[in-house]
Design brief:
Blueprint (H helix, E strand, L loop, with lengths): L9 E5 L21 H11 L4 E4 L4 H8 L5 E4 L4 E3 L7 E2 L4 H13 L8 E4 L4 E4 L7 H12 L5 E6 L2 E6 L4 H8 L9 E6 L5 H9 L3 E5 L8 E3 L2 H12 L4
Parallel strand pairs: 1-2, 1-10, 2-3, 10-11, 11-12
Antiparallel strand pairs: 3-4, 4-5, 6-7, 7-9, 8-9
Amino acid sequence: MMLDLKPDETALFLDFDGTLVDLAPRPEAVTVSPALPAILARVQALFAGAAAVVSGRPVADLDGFLAPFRFVANGLHGLEARDAPDGAVVRRAPPASLDRVRQGIAASGIAATDGVLVEDKALTLAVHYRQAPDAQEAVLTLLHDLAAPHADLAVLAGKMVVEVKPSGFSKATAVEHCLTLPAFAGRRPLFVGDDVTDEDGMRAALARGGAAIKVGEGPTVAPVRLGTVSDVHRFLARLADGAA
């Protein structure tokens, strides 16, 4: 794969799950390659700080997995933002409607389904069914029904997970926010991701005259594709060496 990237003109946006780490049965069970933090630090230096991790996870979780590497980050689909590696995390206030969905999930008993995991991220609510694929329809129906009465909420379906979050925030808004920061301003974005939730970020990058890379299989707007997480690591290492 060849991309005509100029580090002094490009801003890099990286998804985490399925892009930097392989997916795992439970969110906390992912394994980070010992070499990854150093590779990311090299890439961050190459782009003069114009590199960000954009994820559906909280920024604190990303910090725990990628330590000691520190980075610009947008967590929870843009509801959390850290505008500098050593900066504070700014969080949006959740709407009251999210608490009503939280109560509805608890009352439904879906968490008692074998293999289903309810993950409360405070600003979003995710129901994972990777270990219970037959529960897909029940999870989708439940969350759509609970969110439907609330115009300020949106339902986001990803790989074996459905999430309810405040509307108006996405990986696209995360990209747009970062492009206002001094280190990113005036650069063309490159977004690398694997999931349906990453397509918004890819569209935003392409709309800004940038590029997008899809990791793995499935339909995508990205014109370039990498096969696996290991391929992403090799691409980033070559990028840092000036060979990508």
